[in-house]
Design goal:
Layout lengths: L1 H19 L5 H28 L1 H29 L4 H16 L2 H6 L9 H6 L1
């Protein structure tokens, strides 16, 4: 479902690009747009249901999202250090804090912070 969603979003972007450059006639654009949007809405709805109903899927999504957010944060630090907006030492220190938070599950807790204790079974034991 995630693969279908990603593919449909990409197709929709390409279709929009084709429209803006005049590579497709308006009536065909409308037909394809409706078809893609319908397929995308179904796939997104099914994916949302699956993520809510299947704990393993939800946990995986939370972990993957946390890793991507950590990567984005570290990329921003690296860019800022390269451009001289922050010092190399500050960038390394903050990057290390991000790595530690990711290892300890702190970033995942932020990503999935909907109060669902099932996502963080280690916390249940602590309480």
């Amino acid at each position: 479902l995630l693969a279908e969603t990603l593919a449909m979003r990409s197709a929709r972007q390409e279709l929009d690009s084709m429209r803006s450059t005049g590579e497709i006639v308006p009536v065909l654009f409308s037909d394809l747009e409706r078809d893609i949007d319908d397929r995308l809405a179904r796939a997104e709805g099914d994916l949302e249901s699956l993520a809510q109903d299947t704990e393993a899927v939800r946990k995986r999504q939370v972990r993957l999202t946390a890793r991507r957010l950590a990567s984005a944060q570290k990329g921003a630090l690296s860019d800022a250090a390269r451009s001289g907006r922050i010092g190399e030492q500050a960038a390394r220190r903050m990057s290390k804090q991000i790595d530690i938070a990711l290892e300890e599950g702190e970033l995942a807790r932020e990503v999935g912070s909907d109060g669902d204790p099932a996502l963080y079974p280690d916390e249940e034991a602590d309480q």
